[in-house]
Amino acid sequence: MRKLVVICVVITGALLISGCQEIDTEVSAVTVMDAPNDSGGGVVVAWPAPAGVKVDSFAIERLDPETGKYTPLTTVKGDETFLEDTGLTPNADYSYRVVANLADGKTTAVGEGAGRPTGEWFNFNRLNVLVGVVSFVVLVLVFISMARGGKELFVRKIAGLEAVDEAIGRATEMGKPILFVSGLGDASDIATIAAMTILAKVARKTAEYETPLIVPCRDPIVMMVEKEMVREAYTEVGRPDAFEEDSVFYVTDSQFGYVAAVDGIMLRERPATNFYMGAFYAESLILAETGAQTGAIQIAGTDRVTQFPFFITACDYTLMGEELYAATAYLGRDPLMLGSLKGQDWAKAVILVILIVGAILIALTGLGEVDTTWFARLFETVS
Amino acid sequence: MRREVPLFICFIMGALMAVQFFVPHQFSITLYQYMLRWLIIVLTFAMLLGIGSLIKVHSYKVRFKREGWGYSIVALIGLAMSIVTGMAGILGRLILGQERMAEGFFGDFLFTFFNSGIDLGSGFMWLFSYIQIPMQATMFSLLAFFIVSASFRTFRARSLEAFLLLIAAIIVMLGRVPLEGIVGQWLPDLAEWILEYPNMAAKRGIMIGVGLGAMSMALKIILGIERSWLGGTE
Fold this sequence. Notes:
The complex is a heterodimer.
Chain A: H1 2-20, E1 31-34, E2 43-46, E3 55-64, E4 69-77, E5 82-85, E6 94-102, E7 107-115, H2 127-148, H3 159-174, E8 178-181, H4 190-209, E9 213-217, H5 220-236, E10 248-250, H6 255-269, E11 273-277, H7 284-293, E12 297-302, H8 308-314, E13 317-320, H9 322-332, H10 335-366, H11 373-378
Parallel strand pairs in A: 8-9, 8-11, 9-10, 11-12, 12-13
Antiparallel strand pairs in A: 1-2, 2-5, 3-4, 3-6, 6-7
Chain B: H1 4-20, H2 26-63, H3 69-96, H4 98-102, H5 107-115, H6 123-154, H7 160-175, H8 180-183, H9 186-222
Helix pairs in contact in B: 2-3, 7-9
């Protein structure tokens, strides 16, 4: 009899509890894993879909260590089974609780779990990038080593670079200055660095011919580096006294303020030759058209694809994209530099083959012949 | 030593930043942010050198009455005005003290004008909004006229390439004009096709070359093969 009363009390209690509380018993555990390939600020909270019930949404709650209570984090759709929580403190413990909001209005606890976010030392999402970079570096180094060994390397003619000597000679004959504009990029821009290397070659020639050189700069760091480069070039050819300190000067960092100043220099000083090398934006045509109207011979070089049409239209010669980077190798004819150019060419050939293979595979996928998504995944980069 | 030390620093920092791209750890992020802060500090000091250069060049022009020296006076006045209006509040507080500034020593208008640094309503922002921005807009608007003159020169069909360029340009230009009711949808579709396929293919080809060229350039600088940036050509 006593046993019967206890069982009745337990069953009644259980029924009462189930009726009062919306949260049922746990269905299964929630797993909290460290988010892969991150700095240690994220975890992945995963939970199994409750069987036999229709779930509207899942409410994810995170334990507040100060109050010791779960606070709502977010709500996700009922067909989702994981969530990435980011912005966490690395190496700290985090606990989560997942509650399922059922279609009939009731809620049921899916479970609880805890985990600790940690930072990784390698981002495997970028493995394909690393493989590509290492392959390219090896290719370039192989060709540099071949060039060092005395192998003759053919490099096609680049009209814009062939014309550099002619343009400097023209200015010398006319007794007019040469204007060198190194673009709007800062010193960390690779196009600006390429422009600086071309300036070094141009400055050496102007020093030899004693042709005035004007270099207006938009970035103070670029100005300092270019000033040193021009000074060195004059010293190298034995004419340090011919170097004018103020030939390389700062103008302004305002885009159109810079354009106004350079246009003014073109119209007042009437340089015979204008070089536009580096990173350019909307100002490219304003500069190049003003230069064309003054009758100067103009050589431009940029890696900004959107500015090519403007330079091609208004300049006599235009170095497009990689030709800008090839300038030092081309002008100096240094075997080591030429080796790197050949490496680039071979890398382009490899990319071309990959593109052709990719196009064929996509065509086959379209025909329903084979599944080629694996090929696309090889080149995917997940941020 | 004059060359070896910069080359060594360049190699270490270049290699470090390349490795940093593949390391997501907090240590790597902290290092990157630390470098960015360094960059800001260097930039700030470099700006002082830039201003020094600006003053020197224009003072020289004014002093020796070189061609266009009048413009140099305007440039120097502009520079002085920007510095004065930008820093007047700080200087006022330093010279007069916070209390006298707050009492409206200069009167309401002048108080706002000088005391607000680069806030809205300050003298600095007045110069920026009513002088610098209109002047920049004027320069930018010149682009429209230059595009016309450049197009006129380019679109003269003197060769097969120039003829093709002319045809493509006419199609794309007309395709962007709302002429559906007159010539039908085929023209905008053709213009879109030219932009999406032949144009995009050429652009991507160039971009691949640019990417490889930039990587090669970076590699040459990191390994010390390209040394022109050190000055000279050796």
